[in-house]
Automatic annotation (TrEMBL):
SUPFAM superfamilies: YppE-like. It comes from the Bacteria. This is DUF1798 domain-containing protein. It comes from Bacillus weihaiensis. Pfam families: DUF1798.
């Protein structure tokens, strides 16, 4: 199923962000070169994944009506994914805030996967 594949891709993306965030001891310098060579390609990859995932997740939620996942959560989840990707490069965010954003996205995506598995 496409939603499963897309969700797993998002989880992989989140894991890469967590590794990148934890790898940086010092905030990297904000240069154009760093932005265009590192940040922009990753953000575009995330945006592409989000554009595939959101309509699939939206349709699945409307069709299956899971108890703890709602359509309104998708928009905030997408905003959080974008923040996680960007902040994983720059560390302009409190460590706890980053972990909370990461965890909230992970929770929604994994909840969808768990619900889908329990249907089978």
């Amino acid at each position: 199923m496409e939603l499963i594949t897309s969700s797993k891709e998002l989880l992989t993306l989140l894991e890469e962000c967590m590794e990148r965030f934890n790898k940086h001891e010092v905030k990297p310098e904000k240069t154009e070169e760093y932005f265009f060579n590192q940040v922009k390609p990753s953000f575009e990859r995330a945006t592409t994944s989000i554009q595939i995932w959101k309509p699939l997740a939206n349709d699945w939620i409307i069709k299956n009506k899971p108890k703890y996942i709602h359509v309104t959560q998708l928009d905030s989840t997408i905003e959080h994914i974008e923040q996680v990707v960007l902040q994983s490069f720059y560390r302009d965010i409190n460590r706890q805030r980053f972990y909370n954003l990461h965890h909230s996205v992970e929770y929604v995506v994994e909840s969808i996967l768990d619900e889908m598995e329990s249907e089978d």
